[in-house]
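Hey team,

Filing this mostly as a record. A colleague (T.K.) asked me to run one chain through the structure pipeline before their review meeting, and I want the input and output archived in the tracker in case anyone asks later how it was produced. No errors, nothing strange. Just documentation.

Input sequence:
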Amino acid sequence: MPLMRYFGLLIIAFLLTACGGGGSIQKDTDNGNGDGSDGTYAITLSGSDSDGNTANTLSSTSPLIITATLTKDGSALANSRVVFESDEFAVMEPSSGSVLTDTEGKASVTLKVTNVVGAGRITASYEQGSNAVSKTFDFTSQGGGDNSDNTASGKLEVMLLSQCPVGWDTNRDQAMIDPIAAGCTRVNQVSSNETADIFIKLTSSQTSDAIANALISAETTLGTILPATGTALTDNFGIAILKFQPGNQGGAGTITVNSPDYIDVTQAINFNVGVAQLNVSIDNGLVDGDGVQQQLSAGGSTVITVTLKDQNGALINSAFEVAFSSPCSSATPALAELDESVNTSNGIARSTYRAKGCQGEDRISVTIQNGSSPINKETTIEIDSALAQAVQFLPEEEGFNQFIALPPGEGGLPTQSVVSFKLVDEDNLAIPRARVDFRLSDEQGLASLTQITGNTNANGIVRTTVKSGIVPGPLVVSACYIPEESYVNLPDGDAITCWTDIAKACNDTDATNDDVRCPTGVMHTIPLSEQIFGVSSGLILSSGVTDQDTFDASPTTFNTNSLNHSGVTTDIRLFFGDQFNQFNADGVAATVIAEAGAIGSLDSPDTYDCRTNQASCTVVWRSQGDRPFYDYRWGNRIGDIDGNSNTYEGVAPKLAATLSNSQKAEPSNWNCDPYFGSPAPCIEGMLRQRDASITDGETTALRRVVVGGRVSVLAFVKGQENFRDEQSSDGIERRNGRFDIGEYRQEYDLTEAFLDTNENGRFDKEDCDVAANSGPCSPTGTKNGGHDDWWIDANNNGLFDFDTDGNGTFEGDGRYNGLLCSEAAENAGECTRELVNVYRQFELVMSGDVPYVRFTVFQSLTDSGTCANSNGLVLETSDQDGYCDIAEVDFTVSDSPASVPITIFFSDEFGNPLPAGTDVEISTNNGELTGGTITRVVSNSGKAIPGEIEVILVPETEPNNKFEGLLNIKFTFPALGDDDSDRKVRNKGIKVRDAG
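Output structure:
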């Protein structure tokens, strides 16, 4: 019965299975053995590395990219979900394994290794309703990943091999090699003269399968691993081979091997190095076929060859470092070139030796370190002497100064220069310990050399120093080589030179010669064909001490818009030159002082800095403080400028002292004749007190004034007076560039520097400690306005010097003062070697920006020859004979002139010119100006006279329907800031009438 029940169950199971039919349309395949298709949908899989190459191997350094391609009815199916599933041999990115296909129907995941080694499988599937397809892809994982247990997945086998046959590992990629079977010997001791192999095999710790294409790294505590990186990749059988050179030190060491692809996969082996016996030979390359040692030519080269063999006479294969040295190559500077360190190759090391000035014997030493005992060998080279070929000038040598100054070297410029020459042979190599003689090309200006002969140093260089003379110009030093054989056998007392003129002068028994080069015996000369010369170049003697006639100073602007404005500036530039009118050196300091305002440096960290740069320096004058002679009590305006009849600013003080108050208010007593009752400039400027003379008439003397708004400036620097060279005469020797007896001229004799406040060129200082209203410093008592002249008391004696004849004209001290004073002239009292202040003076004008104008015509143009109104011209007597002031032109009058030449004068309140840069425009809106509107710019001038412009007014050629208009002059003054729109404008004019 149980048996029957068993068979019954089998039959029922069979029937159930048959009825089930295949309830799924899924069709599993394995890496391409199936088609992954249900007839409508199909899916395929492929594998590639990160570079896109087809691959099915996964490692820690090379992830695997699995791509599924989904189609429907043979066409790519986009935006559809493909699900990937992998086993424990890999992890996926993205970890969900769910990816949408792109437009080509492709979806990809990236596989990365785990710590599990072996064959893995990934499955990709797609479902759509009742349809489903899937595909599998098999791959190999080398493991080495980092899972939670961090278990190493590989193991290493390391052997040190010796005496392996040549080519024993040639076919390692086709078949796994067995080093022992191939004839290698496994060792733990190697000789210093051999190269060993390091055999490394990497296998999986789980499966013991070989791991291919894995990175192996090795390092050693002794010797060298090749290649130098110490790395290699395993072959298809998990084997890597490195080379080991033990070196020549001897001792025990350790080789450590690991695989960076795996965690904690390391293997170390210990070894010992035995020092081999070395036989060393050396060849200097200079032995001929007969075994005779040859000399090396000067500048020549040879190869030093060192050969290393073992005790059996075989060349040493391992590399040894060979050190080469010699006295000439070790000299400073080196007299020979030698490769100092060379590694042997197949037992041979070669070093190239080249002579570079070494002469005679040079001993080459060779050292090889073999264990703890170095091996030393030597060979000797004989180097031939070189023939001199040239004497080269060396301008780049230290101490050479292209420019040297005339004594004393003002501004720190040197007064001497070191001139260097180099003696070289035919190979352009330096020749040491050789004699070279020097001379100057000429003796102009007393320049000299500190030494006339010298010997070259180890670098072949010889030097002499040029000392400055007293006359500027180019200097040339000649250098000539004197061979030893030319003088070593000369008779006692004889000498030799390259220069025939020196030899001739020394050998002239009829002449007295104090040349230190001349011997007591005969002076011989080197034949011209054998002479080797060199000459210097680029040496210039220049830049002496500043002297009076080349020192200068000038402002950028004489007449600035500064009378009514503070903070207005102008540059003052100083120019320097020496007695030969050549530029001074840099660094010379000068001083500038001013009667008013302030002087300093705006672009320097110092408040005042005036030191020469390219023989000039610049400071800045700034308007501020009191204006010179500005007070009304000086009565120095052109007229009554303020319209107050109780002030008399336009009446000369000495004249005012003779007038009543009512008379002072009369325009006829103004300094300048009024222009139709208004103040206007004097045509030729006011009568200045500085020009006062004993020949003045009473009227002239009373009307003189000290002009206001003018600033005296003094610039001075330590220097010397001028002189002019004269020819020798009457037994007196005179040299160019030197002050000699008979060369003094009074016109060049300087007084002490002084600030000339009244611009008359004389020192007029007065004692002002007297009555303020009547003394010599008062408006009525001043002689010429120079009572406040100020001087630089160079000798600190409290007096202005010098007035040698006592007549008050201060001529100077009657001597030349300067460093060029000769000894004879100094002894004769005609000069001193003292420096004095050389100086320049000029006047700045603090011009006002309120214009005063006078329109005039020539008196000769009127019919009456007087300044009475006539011919349609409204006139009056003007400031100057020959002129009439004009206020109106009427072309409607029948006898009016066809043209009216009008001269317009304009100035500020002191009669000074208007500020430089003021734009002047003259135009008319009735009648016409010949040439049209006139434009001018006030010039840069320090004169004390007004500006003037002449125009010609004529009737208009075409009626303008205007019966009355103006001939106008417009002044546009310079801007006081950066904004050009902020310019002050003033207009003046006269009437012009016509018939319309």
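Quick notes for T.K.: The domain at 41-141 is CATH 2.60.40.10 (Immunoglobulin-like). The first strand starts at residue 41 and ends at 48.
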